[in-house]
Amino acid sequence: MADCIFCKMVNKEVPAQAVYEDEEILAFKDINPVAPVHVIIIPKKHITDATQLKSEDAGLIGRIYLAAVQIAKELGLEENGFRLVNNCKVDGGQEVFHLHFHLLGGHKLGLFV
Predict the structure, then answer these.
(1) Is 100 known to be catalytic?
(2) Which of 49, 92, 99, 100 is deepest in the core (most CB within 10 A)?
């Protein structure tokens, strides 16, 4: 989508501080972190939100979770743990309407961040 900031990051039109990238996934540091480690993980394919997922996206979502675990390990979060969050639509707290996951860690997280 032409006006999607995350699509612009995928297309290298807008810089992102990438921590992981493969053919289907991009992960980058959040510009407004709410935890010592705050990484955004997105599919390169534009999917507006979780309600738009189709059965053919199941493998992609699995690969996003595997990438999240790999990133967490690389960032030293494996021992103490981390949180992986997806906000869906306005009432769910979604601000950028491109499916994405927040990988949070680096300190003990409360019930809500």
Answers:
(1) yes
(2) 99
Q: Which of 46, 100, 102, 107 is catalytic?
A: 100
Which backbone phi and psi does 93 adopt, to 5 degrees?
95, 10
Domains along the chain with CATH numbers: 1-77 (3.30.428.10)
pTM of the model: 0.95
How does DSSP assign 94-111, residue by residue?
--SSS--EEEEESS---S
User: What is the chain's pLDDT, residue by residue, as a tens digit (113 residues)?
Assistant: 779 999 999 999 999 999 999 999 999 999 999 999 999 999 999 999 999 999 999 999 999 999 999 999 999 999 999 999 999 999 999 999 999 999 999 999 987 65
Q: Please count the residues of the chain.
A: 113
Q: Name, in order, each residue with C-beta under 8 angstroms of 80's C-beta and a sequence gap of 6 or more.
A: 105, 108
